[in-house]
Structures are given as structure tokens and as C-alpha cells.
Amino acid sequence: MMFWLACAEPTTDTDASATVQDVQTSTFPGTSPSTPPPAPTTIPTDPAGDPLPAAADQVESAPGADDLPFGDPTYAINGVRGGGTSAGGIDVYALDAQGEGAALIVRWTDRRLLDGPGVDLVVFENAFEVSPGHHFMDPTLVSVSIDGVTWIDFPADRIDENRAEPSDDPTHWVGFAGLTPVQLHAEANAVDPFDADAAGGDGFDLGTLDPSDPDVAELLEHGVAAVRLRSASAVDDPATGAPWPTDPVANGADIDGVWGRVLVWE
Ligand SMILES: [Ca+2]
Ligand SMILES: [Ca+2]
Fold first, then answer.
1. Of 8, 25, 30, 261, which is least packed with CB atoms within 10 Å of its CB?
2. C-alpha of residue 169 to centroid of ligand 1, in Å
3. What span, in angstroms and rounded, lies between the C-alpha atoms of 99 and 137?
4. What average pLDDT values come out for the chain (266 residues) when binned by 10 residues?
């Protein structure tokens, strides 16, 4: 029933020293990055070999990948290197603003993300503050799946009265990623990715999904195998039937990395 489960390595064979570079070579053959990520990231485990919070380390799908600057999707799994409050990080994979290339799917090698206390998942994009209350940002829709077929969207909405118009006020956008600047930096500021004040990024709690939905119930039982990120500009706002309006100078979400908190081996 779950194609990723079917092809997973036996849990006893898990190599805790696997690196992002190992993974990307074996699982994303369509990508031949001419400029490798700055450094491989070891999958962290505790002394018992159990996984600790970790960044997603596999690209499952990146149809917008190309040889242009920021066209290499491995930058979405190579660690987070934010640019701080007032500048956008450049260690990113840029999704398109429209079309098939506006989506990216990432996952964790041989692991699934469970619903733990509070935020379970943090998406780091490269939004930054232009002035107080005004951000340059690429609102991003977040979905989760246990099988890569059925996707459950985190509810997202505009809560101001001008939903058909762009807004650079992040408080107008609720349930989107791509809103909050990123202070987390793998080398220069390796704070807790789940400390929102210290790390930035946009957090998501699986516990906020509706457990009366059978698909959600199954997801909560088995865990998340993959996360899909989509530029909001490529998706229709159900209330208007038109794409979510984003700043004309924004050109799609720029994904730096995705962290999960409670991960279990498959
Ligand atoms: Ca949770
Ligand atoms: Ca990155």
C-alpha cells in the first residue's frame, strides 16, 4: 500500500553515518549538481542509535530542477543557511512561481515524522523583512503524505479583507510557509531549529490536522513519509478560484531546508 515502505531498507541495516551526498547520489539520479552542497550532513542519532530531529535529506521530486542559479534541489536538503532578518538566504532551491516546477517533495531517509508535542515540522524559506510588518516573501503551501499519492494540505488562508490582492504583511497569511525570516545557519548560527525565536522559519503541527478525516487518522498513525511544498502563486485560492496573489516581483518559493522533530525508523 505504501510504495516507499516497500522499498525501504531493513531497519537493522540503517547506517547512521549516511550523508546527504550519499543519499542524493542514490535517490535522485536526474540531478548532477555542478556545485555540490557546502557540506554533507550526517543523520543525527543518539547513543542508542535512535534518530534525533533532522532535516529532510532526500529530494523525492523536483520537476523544476535545472542548471540555472538556484536550480539545484539538493540545496533544499543540504542544511539550512539563513540570511537573517533583513536578507534572504542563498543556500536554496528556487521553485517556479507557476506550473509543474512550482512543487518540491522532500523526505527523510528510512524515517517517518510523527506528531509530537507542538510544532513537528519547520519549513525554512528565504523571506526577509523589508521594514517592520513588511516582508519580501513567497507564501508556500505545505502538504504531507504517507505514500506520495494522498496528500493532506495544512489549512492556509488569508485573514485580511483583500485576499485577491498581494500583501507583504505576513500576518495576513495564516498556515503558509515562506513568511518568516531565517536566522538558523548550519555553521554560523546552529541554534535549535524548533526554537522559533532563535531559528525563524515557519512551523507546522500535525496535531492541528483534523483527525476525523480518515486520511489524517491514517497519517497520524503511520507518520509522514514526505512533505510537499508548493509556491502559493501556482495554486488556486478556493475562495476566489484564482491563484493566491503574491507580490509581482516574487518568483516562487526558495527552499533552504525542512526540519522534522519526532522521527522514527521505518
Ligand atoms: Ca505536534
Ligand atoms: Ca539549504
1. 30
2. 26
3. 19
4. 35 36 34 43 70 92 97 98 97 97 96 95 98 97 96 98 97 98 98 97 98 97 97 97 92 97 89
